[in-house]
Amino acid sequence: MTAVNEPLVSVVVPVFNGAPFLAATLASVLAQDYPQRELIVVDDGSSDGSAEIAASVPGAIVLRQSQQGPAAARNAGIAAARGSLISFLDQDDCWRPNKLSVQTGVMRARPELGMTITGHRLFLEPGRTRPGWLRPDMLDRDLLGAMPGVLMVTRATFAQIGTFDPANVNASDVDWFLRALDLGVAWAAIPQVLLDKRIHSENQSAQVESCHAGFLAAVRLSIARKRTGAQGRPPSQPPSANGT
User: Fold this and answer.
1) pTM as predicted
2) Considering just the CA atoms, what is the radius of gyration of the chain in Å?
3) Would you give the DSSP letter of residue 160?
4) What SS3 state is found at 128?
5) 182-207: pLDDT as tens digits
6) Tally of CB atoms within 10 A around 69
7) Which residue range(s) make up the domain with 123?
8) Which CATH number belongs to the domain containing residue 205 in this structure?
9) How far is Cα of residue 129 from the mean position of the Cα atoms in its chain?
């Protein structure tokens, strides 16, 4: 595959004590059939050697910060990114090898799009007990929903909307997607499954009550914006790389 005229995609991987699965996650980025990419791993104060695992990956950019949460880690990656397109992958998930090529193809064909999402599958880590929130029928089937691991977004969209809000600890991604929809960002859903999402006992989504509270907070802010006409940029700064 030629790299001529293909946009650079910055891949941001936030990690906090993700050593058990991080190597497989990063390997799935390296296995992409899309060559124009940079890998940025943001270590959010890990104590288990996650940063060292990331540093062993050829070409990886590793940023280290004190623990501030996944939103702040993603924001640090956005600020360091050089690409015109940005994608995210959680520390315990894996992409299919054509994830980036499929999404960049759609976004190049439709330049009006500010973001795309793709299909995904959930799988239970062997030897782990299925958490109560996960219905058996949700496993090993094609799903479509908004989450960081299926997202590809233009840098201009972040400049318009702002970055992730660290104040919403467990649902900053939901808050961001709602802000994008409230502002009318053009987007497209690609049904093809391009993310395999690992389910295990340490998933943030296992923190059901706190995630639910974060989700409700994001929805309330969205309702308030619609009532007042406010755009609701969070306190985090928009991306500044390359002067944009």
Assistant:
1) 0.84
2) 17
3) H
4) coil
5) 999 999 999 999 999 999 866 545 45
6) 20
7) 9-243
8) 3.90.550.10
9) 25
